[in-house]
Design a protein that fits this description.
Helix content is about 20%, strand content about 40%. It has an eight-stranded antiparallel β-barrel. Bound molecules: 2-acetamido-2-deoxy-beta-D-glucopyranose (NAG). The site of 2-acetamido-2-deoxy-beta-D-glucopyranose has 3 residues, from helix 2.
C-alpha cells in the first residue's frame, strides 16, 4: 500500500505543477455538514467551480449519485470532451464512520487509495460544497474542492458565500477554476 501511495503521489505531483493544489502544512480542521442525509444528496450535481482535479479535462462536468443495495453510493461522473465524446468514470462512495455521515470515502480505481469526500455545506436542493484533503508524511497536504449545483448555473451570491467558507478553512479561492457548463446538450443522456 505504501508503494501505491508513492505512485499516486507522483501522479498528483504531476497534476500540481498545473494545479498548485499542494501545500506544506497539514489538512485544515473542518466542520462537515451537520445531520447530513445522504438520501437527500442523491441525484445529479453539476460542477460550477473546482480546485483543479486531474481526472477532469472536459466541460459540462456532472456527477450522478445513486444508492446501492449495500447502502454505499454509486458515483457516475461524466464530462463532455472537446471532440464531442462523453467521458465517464464509475466509483463508489461509503460513509466510514456513521457518527460522521457527511464524510465519505470515494474510490474510482482499486489501485489508487480512497479519497475523502467531505460535504461541508449543502441545502440538498440547490448547492453543495465538497472538500477533500489528504496528508502526506505529516509534511504537506493535497486538497480538492468543488462547488456543485443542482442546475448548470449557480447564482453568484451563493458561489461567493461558498467561497467564503473555503477561505475560512484556508483554501486560496483564487486557485478555483470555473467549469464551462455551456453547450452541454449531448450530456442529456450521460
Ligand atoms: C433522510 O431523508 C429522507 C428523504 O427525505 C427521509 O425519508 C429520511 O427519514 C431522512 N433520514 C433521516 C435520518 O433524517
Amino acid at each position: 500500500m505504501a508503494l501505491l501511495k508513492v505512485v499516486f503521489l507522483f501522479l498528483v505531483a504531476a497534476e500540481t505543477i498545473y494545479g498548485q493544489s499542494f501545500r506544506f502544512s497539514t489538512c485544515p480542521k473542518i466542520k462537515p455538514q451537520e445531520n447530513f442525509n445522504v438520501t437527500q444528496y442523491l441525484g445529479t450535481w453539476y460542477e460550477i467551480k473546482k480546485l483543479p482535479a486531474m481526472f477532469e479535462r472536459g466541460k459540462c462536468v456532472q456527477a450522478k449519485y445513486s444508492l446501492l443495495q449495500d447502502g454505499a453510493v454509486r458515483v457516475h461522473n461524466s464530462e463532455l470532451l472537446k471532440d464531442g465524446k462523453i467521458n465517464s468514470i464509475e466509483g463508489t462512495a461509503k460513509v466510514e464512520d456513521h457518527a460522521k455521515p457527511a464524510i465519505l470515502s470515494v474510490s474510482f480505481f482499486k489501485v489508487v487509495p480512497d479519497s475523502p469526500y467531505i460535504v461541508l455545506n449543502t441545502d440538498y436542493s440547490s448547492y453543495a460544497l465538497v472538500y477533500s484533503c489528504s496528508d502526506y508524511f505529516g509534511l504537506f497536504h493535497i486538497d480538492f474542492a468543488w462547488i456543485l449545483s443542482r442546475t448548470r448555473h449557480l447564482d453568484s451570491a451563493t458561489v461567493s458565500l461558498l467561497q467564503d467558507k473555503l477561505t475560512l478553512i484556508g483554501v486560496d479561492v483564487s486557485r478555483l477554476s470555473v467549469t464551462d457548463q455551456t453547450g452541454c446538450g449531448p450530456m442529456a443522456s450521460a
